[in-house]
From TrEMBL:
Gene3D superfamilies per record: Alanine racemase (3.20.20.10), Lyase, Ornithine Decarboxylase, Chain A, domain 1 (2.40.37.10)
Sequence ranges assigned to domain Orn/DAP/Arg decarboxylase 2 N-terminal in this UniProt record: 33-275
Record note on quaternary structure: Homodimer.
Transmembrane portions of the chain: none
Protein name per its UniProtKB record: Diaminopimelate decarboxylase
Residues binding pyridoxal 5'-phosphate, per UniProt: G227, Y365
One function term, GO molecular function aspect: diaminopimelate decarboxylase activity
EC number: 4.1.1.20
Biochemical pathway: Amino-acid biosynthesis; L-lysine biosynthesis via DAP pathway; L-lysine from DL-2,6-diaminopimelate: step 1/1
Residues the record lists as N6-(pyridoxal phosphate)lysine modifications: K58
InterPro entries assigned: Ala_racemase/Decarboxylase_C, DAP_deCOOHase_LysA, De-COase2_C, De-COase2_N, Orn/DAP/Arg_de-COase, PLP-binding_barrel
Keywords annotated in UniProt: Amino-acid biosynthesis, Decarboxylase, Lyase, Lysine biosynthesis, Pyridoxal phosphate
Amino acid sequence: MEFVDGRYQIAGVDVLSLVEQFGAPVYVYDAARMKQQYHRISKAFGGAKRLRINYACKALTNLNVLRLFQQLGSGLDTVSMQEVELGLLAGFDPHDILFTPNCVSLEEVNRAVSKGVRMNIDNISILEQFGDQHRGVPICIRLNPHIMAGGNSKISVGHIDSKFGISIHQVPHVLKVVSALGLKIEGLHMHTGSDILDAQVFLQGVEILLRAAVDFPDLDYIDFGSGFKVPYKEGGIATDIEDLGARLTDRFNAFCADYGRELALMFEPGKFLVSEAGTFLMRTNVVKTTPATVFAGVDSGLNHMIRPMFYDAYHHIVNVSNHGGKPRIYTVVGYICETDTFGINRQLAEVREGDILSMANAGAYCYMMASNYNSRFRPAEVMILDGRAHLIRRRETMEDLLGTQVELPALARPVATVE
């Protein structure tokens, strides 16, 4: 979001006009920003002779977002059968989709195999069962390098107590299973967690994975995951993707020379590609003063944007309606019936009832974690593409809320029409 000629804009479109057209609350995505981030990471690792970027679509699975990345040449990283099916609907070739589930049944794994997507196995039990049924299907193995990375314990997934991946110490066991069942291992994978603060820690994980790769002679690619940090505050810490790209590709190219084959260097960014492209717009319902705090209460809550409550995540908040107002301190809260806080003691231009507040970095894991808690409707989504705003998901209605419910005749009573 930018301040231009006295008005806030997203990709050249006036923010307040977006609320007038689509209502509030609403998620708005800047397609140009997504493209910029995709090209930036592709360039950063451009020194690799074979590079593959797979968008980690759990960050944001709107079909239009998936199609945008497909047109850019991206592959897709998926973690559920539903994401696989969305990827196929979006036009991805099955061979360009990597399925990386955890703790799923063999039935779901078999369904993915039937779709022809690439498989990534993260536990020995499923590896053995998979080998019994699909010996001719090449697979990737997800290893846990026991590296502690990530800005929050809930998004650190490479440490020793994590449920994700096969322990690096269990590689000898894996090799026995591979040999006994005649499995073809085409890839190795790791993901240490999101919001990586120290590139050197990431590179330590790279070395661990490369040492393991020597024992797998038929590899076609190595997937180093992602977790690259984007700034949430002005001047905030971010992964230096250009520096990391130069250092990692040099090391990877040297490994490939020793390995005797040019492997594909693979990554699966999600937040890096879409976080900064998203803005969440909310309307102020009430300004409430107590002896200790001034609350700005908005027409949203943790049902639409749970990250501040779930991860203690910081999202920058701006009053876009009254940019010239005197700065005051507010705690911005939602309308859900429990503690529901977006930001504590934030300095904002004076907030009046009816003002529109924006939250930045709303592209990744925001709408995707939205719910119908308190029986509230989920908001609309809008994409700005080539200078025009397009509705890409309508706001929910009472019909959507009731759509999956099945009424019992014995309990049915005549009710008034719901409008």
